[in-house]
What we know:
This protein is of the alpha/beta class. The protein has 2 domains: 186 residues, Rossmann fold; 184 residues, Vaccinia Virus protein VP39 (Rossmann fold). The protein has 11 helices and 20 strands. Helix 5 runs parallel beside helix 6. The structure holds S-adenosylmethionine (SAM).
Amino acid sequence: MVDDNCFSSPFGALQLTRASRTQSRTEQNLRAWDAADELLLANLASFEQPKGARILLANDGFGALVCSLPADWQIDFCSDSHLSTQAAKINLAANEKPQSHIQWHTSLGQPTEPLDVLAIKLPKSLSLLEDQLLRYRPLCSAKTRVIAAGMVKHMSAGAFALIQKYLGPTRTSLAEKKARLIFCTPGPEATTPATNPYPKRLTLEDYNVTVTNHANVFSRDALDIGTRFFLAQLPGSTEALRLADLGCGNGLVGVALAGLMPMAKIDFYDESFMALASARTTMGEAFPTRVDQCRFIADDCMASAEPEIYDAIFCNPPFHQHNVVGGFVANQMFHDARRALKPGGALWVVGNRHLGYHQHLKRLFGNLTQVAANKKFVVFKVVKR
Ligand SMILES: C[S@@+](CC[C@H](N)C(=O)[O-])C[C@H]1O[C@@H](n2cnc3c(N)ncnc32)[C@H](O)[C@@H]1O
């Protein structure tokens, strides 16, 4: 019998899981690795690295890379994703792998030591790639082996251009199982001065707010039209309510709520570390005296929220998780929100009309009010009874 979770590379065999909490069949049938992981590991196994070699792994999806590499290498694991970081830790533990050789970094931090290998799984967002290249290039020299890996369908000309601009000339491997590697030997490009354009600031004059957007944040170049529609429907109150902005991105929804509810305490949840950092800065600049009462929580939906603590939760759900499209994250968010709401508390949701959130919300809460709708978007409110 073929074991669907069994992953093998030249470094050995592992059992790997996506560690997903969602009940989605689509997601559960997906593997915790892709052919780009396999190709990257095959390449890393093909050359000798001395004991103690330092390798930075960026954007390892579910830990296939960090779990495979030998423990006598020094590994810096860098990721913007709380989900990926958690999955990697779960897979290390499940495979009884040591962890003392691994340093964990979010996307907002990196090691200071020079690298022998820089291995990047190409992220979906070119902005994140640009930010990462700018962060990591001071750690590279002509001796650093730079390898980027991705599925051919996700590899854009822009990715090659960024690597060439910030590190040096590139060449590619042959494609294998629709994956490909990009190799680069850092040249003078790696030391030419360059300023990181991230985080960017965006002033929204209609709302009298300046938002901070780190490189991997949703709708970082302009206000999303769904969010704009949501903002117009948000309620006000003078009560000391506890609120959550679920899937907060740059935090604009929570910050708008802070303006409408002067006594409210707001918690911001997201799985992206850059989203949470953006929300903290946006809130801190808009409401410097209230930001310390807010919490900025890296979580899978609201897995860590205590039951029955919020008076209201506001959510503009994602319709994909990394590269997988579907309503499964939204559904998990609705489940978690129901648990975290006080009896009588309300969940407010904005979505594209065609996504059909109302069916799931109605089934879960047993009631539903359509607060507003236009040609594209709809805002629903459901109450926990
Ligand atoms: C459509 S964006 C909304 C951002 C922001 N609230 C707005 O309206 O502009 C959805 C957000 O959900 C976050 N997200 C995706 N999957 C998540 C998960 N499993 N747990 C928590 N947040 C998640 C994404 O990082 C993204 O910031």
